[in-house]
Specification:
This protein is an alpha+beta fold. About 25% of the residues lie in helices and about 20% in strands. The strands form 3 sheets. A 4-stranded antiparallel β-sheet has the order 1-6-7-5, with helices on one face. The radius of gyration is 20 Å and the shape is elongated. It starts with a helix and ends in a 7-residue tail after the last strand. Bound molecules: zinc ion.
Amino acid sequence: MPELPEVETVRRGLNRLVKGATVASIEVFWPKIINNDVESFEARLKGQTIEKIDRRGKYLLFRFTNGLTMVSHLRMEGKYNVVPRGEDQTKHTHVVFHLTDDRDLLYNDTRKFGRMTLVPTGEENTVGGLKKMGPEPVADQLTLAYLEDTFGKSKKMIKPLLLDQSKIAGIGNIYADETLWMSKIHPMRPANSLTENEISALRQNIIDEMAMAIKGHGTTVHSFSTAFGEAGQFQNHLHVYGREGEPCERCGTLIEKIKVAQRGTHFCPHEQQL
Ligand SMILES: [Zn+2]
């Protein structure tokens, strides 16, 4: 499942590669990926130019001329690829955007869970999870006042609250564990038990961690056809995620893995106490 930094890396790669490109025609091999009527989807995008690609949470927003936005969610395995025309299609290629400059924008998806929805620009907030999406994890949007209010009102455990996209956009399992460890907060603490100092620290760690993760993934964007951040350098910087049984970098206590709200959760039992 791509998390926000991966999707942001894809967005940057796409902007670099296909911003300004015009769609000559579209082939859809797996119609379920398109939430619209497929014929109308193809007809409305034909001849339109990609002005830019935006992002909201884990959703990519392709801004086309003619006031159209294609909302694309990669879900588990969706990937974009830009290739010379006719090359590199596989059995997992489900949508092909033929561009007028003799390239193809391929959408590959081994699980076929990804979805594309074409809407008038400005109506993207009517699509799927965008209807109710919390603020982006950046300083000017994820304010301390907002978090104090949101956490203060909730008896829910803090980890599932961090994963709730309607509260904060784009935090997944890895970054929830990492930022809670950095903030020395047990993942099962009730949100409304967090002190002002803890909320402030957690907020800053979320903002810094997401920015650093985006930077880390950006460094892997190097070539034409592998532009979309497969490996990423960021796994080298993880402190707790996937490190159960290894000593905590701060105190040496062995990192434990437990289940919290069905999700594998890593924490330092010495510094993150209930
Ligand atoms: Zn520790």
